[in-house]
Design a protein that fits this description.
267 residues, mainly alpha, 9 helices, globular, binds zinc ion
């Protein structure tokens, strides 16, 4: 019990630091700058002091303003650090690293990290970073092919991985062709392929896409209702897809029996 609590506290701190890294990756992938080099204030370009780089805490102590130029520091920074801290804590709870879960903990944490970067870039700049999706897809493929035994529930074969990629790619690809890119962006097709590589079976891909539409639908309806978005505005789909993928990675094996049940009626 004590070990679990210590693990979760450590995971929260690790996650907050990873969130800080995710902010840097998102901004530097956006403006194509190098990942090396010191962090600077986005307004006055002053190099930040290490004590101003403590995740979440620094932003709160500075009340969201640069010490030098007093310009506001984007709320993205503490939000992403907090989100990543929570995601890493949940992952550590699912796969306690000290109790043999280290492989799955690292895998799911890295996927969550990549998804957070993707969500930030899609929300702020309507960009889906293809290079990062490639990295996540390769990571999924390598993990499924070499460590299939780590996961008790999913044991994908090469054919099932190909189907897992083909189903969402075809689903989004057809929509993209029919609507000539109006309903869905080409980045979403790539994202669908990446999801298949991470999840490893077509059943999981179907669940992830389904959950993405549920999450996206609820989000868009509540944003329309509260007037944050207006009818006809283009809402990025990446965050919904990322949420669908994450939920399926966590709970897909519990949802899958219901999918098989639905299919047994259909056939
Ligand atoms: Zn400044």
């Amino acid at each position: 019990m004590t070990i679990l609590i210590v693990t979760l506290v450590f995971a929260f701190i690790l996650g907050a630091c990873l969130g800080s890294f995710a902010n840097v990756v998102a901004i530097r992938l956006h403006d194509m700058s190098s990942l090396m080099g010191r962090s600077r204030c986005p307004s006055c370009k002053k190099v930040l002091h290490p004590k101003h780089l403590v995740p979440i805490v620094s932003w709160l102590l500075l009340r969201g303003r640069c010490t030098d130029c007093r310009k506001p520091i984007h709320i993205q920074y503490p939000l992403v650090e907090g989100a990543m801290a929570i995601l890493t804590t949940v992952t550590a709870f699912r796969h306690p690293p000290l109790e043999g879960g280290v492989g799955m903990f690292l895998f799911e944490t890295l996927i969550a990290l990549g998804l957070v970067v993707i969500v930030v870039m899609d929300l702020r700049w309507k960009e889906l970073p293809l290079e990062l999706m490639g990295v996540l897809g390769v990571l999924g493929l390598v993990v499924h092919l070499t460590f299939a035994f780590v996961s008790a529930t999913i044991q994908p074969t090469l054919i099932s991985i190909i189907l897992a990629v083909a189903v969402p790619v075809a689903f989004f690809g057809i929509q993209w062709l029919v609507s000539r890119g109006r309903w869905i962006g080409s980045g979403d097709i790539w994202m669908g392929g990446m999801m298949g590589l991470v999840l490893g079976t077509w059943q999981m891909s179907v669940i992830a896409v389904y959950l993405a539409y549920v999450v996206g639908g609820v989000a868009v309806l509540s944003l329309l209702f509260t007037g944050v978005v207006k009818r006809g505005m283009r809402v990025p789909f990446g965050p919904a897809l990322a949420t669908g993928l994450l939920l399926t990675m966590w709970f897909g094996d519990r949802i899958e029996p219901y999918l098989s049940y639905a299919f047994s009626f259909a056939t």
